[in-house]
Amino acid sequence: MSKELKELTQEQVQQHNKDGDLWVIIDAKVYDLSRFADLHPGGRAVLVDSEVAGQDATEAFYGLHRHEVLERPQYARLQVGVVRGEKSVITGRLIGGLSKVPYGEPTYLTEGFHSPYYTENHRVFQKAVRKFFDEVVYPDAQARELDGKRPSQEVFDKMAELNLHAMRLGPGKHLKGLSLFNGLVKPEEFDYFHELIITQELIRTGSRGYADGLLGGKVIGLPPILNFGSPELKAKVVPEVFSAKKFICLAISEAHAGSDVLGMKTTAVKSEDGKYWIINGEKKWITNGHFADYFTTGCKTEGGLTVILIPRQEGVTTKPIKSLLLSDCRNSFCHLRQRPSSSREIRSGPRTVGIFVILSNFNHERWVMICASTRAQRMIMEECLKWISQRKAFGKPLSSQAVVRSQSGADERAREALQGWLENVTYQMCNMQACWPDRLLEDVAALSMRKILRETAYRSLEDVGSPDGDGPLVEHYHRTIGFDSILGGAEDVLGDLGVRQAMRMMPKNARL
């Protein structure tokens, strides 16, 4: 039961202005800090200052703290009243709401702007998806960021009820007959812009590791089954994964072969009776590997590469890898020492088809990464704009400094260019013949975002700063951005790939 709040005049608050009897006003709300002063992280001297004790300390508070501090139960209970005749004007996180901060949302969600790419159904879908992620996923993400555990099964189950696990794999036959978000979008109308929306709303949880832990392994591990698996294999595995009863991951990378797929050393040989595979090797950096039930595994076989689905069983052991992600996406080592078993080849035929199964998966993975990273940049930019408008230095907001505005402008230009490029490519994916989006995506994934992400991370950290004050999201972004520079292929390797792809398309008669 909430306590009754008194209406107080500023004169009444001013009477409580000394050590042991200390009140302050923050955004028209009155807080009794008398007993809290000894617990204040900055020391009691900050609170008994003549410009704070008994005064309106709104500006001083927001120069040091995030608004969410006031919403935490241990601090919210310190409120004893409100200022008579005044109203609070500062709002916290709005469930399902849109940001009013300039560039805080992509243009299709910004009042007064228009986009040729998004339909009314996309907008309705975005609103529902954001509300779901704000209400169900965001609280779990914040809790898991603190305790380092994997996402809760309850979240997996609620996503399964809406068929979000299926939708995260994009449009396709796998959606046929499913009710998508309680019928909000028809399976045959679901396109890559719907998937883009899901990925970008997930990133708003603000936890890089949690986002990967929320079945990032499925996004890259299940497509080979969908695209190349036998009907029998798909009938068994796909429903289990979509319902979050079983988990799957992609096991390609190895310690000796990161971007060099052809350099993998894991081997697979047939048993004497020819019925089973015997697999030996180690995989590394496998997203969701530690809690996966299935491993979509690249293996070296006689005559080439083969992709084999390995269930968790005797001979398959996993060990988590500690990383800077903190919350637990369970990147892992996977040790494969298998006797003849129930492993299934994903596609039968010549051993050389394995490399095409592997490579066919990369472009969608890289596109998903661009969707995520572009939204993360927008979130960080919003944090920075809020901070430079409320933090004062030399008596003026940081935004009054030309060098700060110049940095913000550079980030705004880069981010909006990436969003525009991303949406253009997504449109091509929806409309071009099958082979062309892949060629275009290879260029975009290779050239578009890697160095820009690092520059944004560095500048934002300069603007906002420490993780224990106003900058936890910025610090988290700066700490984890290196993962996006290697996932799907190392930065330099992909940069070279983009140029090589462009050179292959050069017309032979082109001359200066």
Keywords:
512 residues; elongated; Flavocytochrome B2, Chain A, domain 1; five-stranded mixed beta sheet; 4 domains; 14% strand; Butyryl-Coa Dehydrogenase, subunit A, domain 1; four-stranded mixed beta sheet; single chain; alpha+beta; 19 helices; Butyryl-CoA Dehydrogenase, subunit A, domain 2
CA-atom Rg in angstroms: 26 Å
Q: Indicate the proportion of strand residues.
A: 5-15%
What's the assembly state of these chains?
single chain
Shape: elongated
| CATH architectural category of the largest domain | Up-down Bundle
For the biggest β-sheet, the strand order reads: 1-5-4-3-2
Uncertain runs are: none
Give the biggest sheet: 5 strands, mixed
Please, how many helices? 19
* CATH level-4 homologous superfamily of the largest domain: Butyryl-CoA Dehydrogenase, subunit A, domain 3
Secondary structure: number of strands: 15
